[in-house]
Specification:
Layout lengths: L7 H4 L3 H25 L2 H7 L4 H7 L3 H21 L7 H18 L1 H12 L6 H24 L8 H17 L1 H7 L6 H17 L2
Helix pairs in contact: 2-3, 2-5, 2-7, 3-4, 6-7, 6-9, 6-11, 7-9
């Protein structure tokens, strides 16, 4: 993914500067999630971060720099559980650990999922290169692990790629369509517990030999 070209003098190394950058990124995540990239302004982000526009621009040169940093943080967090898929582990346990992590992210940080979804709906203008390179390489590698488990007779024969798409669709749904699920669910307190139990049953019945 193309990273923002930041002025190293502005970045600094102090704890306060690092904290301020994280405050800006956190505020920007909410703004971009609510209004999209085009509908958001530096002034809105600065207000959400409780700082002046000039102070924000001390740390980031432009709205695009902020947006790319938010996306980078989001993707780093999202991909970390996928990188931990252990080819020597138990297939069911490894896949289920990943599914639970994805579902937990949808529960704890739905704004990040909606931000990513909005970027993809726009044709991925900012992260298209990342999708074609880094993410494609990681996904191909993880799919190869799943295919190996299938070839060894440890999982039912399914398409590893479409299994990953299924996991992403079912877990991120609860973040991207949170308004819909809220209207259609009688007991929102048990929503994620019910989702976890349902996904576990479907995956284990469909994958396990």
């Amino acid at each position: 993914m193309t990273k923002p070209k930041l002025d190293s003098k502005k970045l600094g190394t102090t704890r306060i500067q690092a904290q301020n950058r994280q405050i800006i990124i956190g505020a920007a995540l909410q703004i971009f999630s609510d209004y999209g990239y085009r509908g958001s302004t530096v002034a809105q982000i600065a207000d959400a971060a409780n700082m002046s526009k000039a102070n924000l621009l001390y740390y980031f040169e432009s709205k695009q720099d902020v947006y790319l940093s938010v996306l980078e943080c989001t993707l780093t967090e999202w991909l970390q559980p996928l990188t931990q898929l252990n080819p020597e582990g138990d297939p069911a346990e490894e896949i289920w650990t990943y599914v639970k992590a994805k579902l937990a992210m949808s529960k704890s940080n739905p704004e990040a999922s909606r931000l990513y979804a909005n970027e993809i709906l726009q044709g991925a203008p900012m992260i298209g290169h990342f999708l074609q390179t880094d993410l494609r390489e990681l996904l191909d590698n993880r799919c190869a692990i799943i295919q190996r488990w299938i070839d060894e007779g440890r999982l039912n024969a399914v398409s590893p790629l479409h299994l990953m798409f299924f996991i992403w669709a079912t877990t991120q749904h609860y973040a991207d369509f949170s308004a819909q699920t809220a209207f259609l669910t009688d007991n929102t307190e048990t929503l994620f517990d019910d989702a976890e139990n349902t996904l576990k049953t479907l995956l284990f019945n469909g994958l396990m030999i």
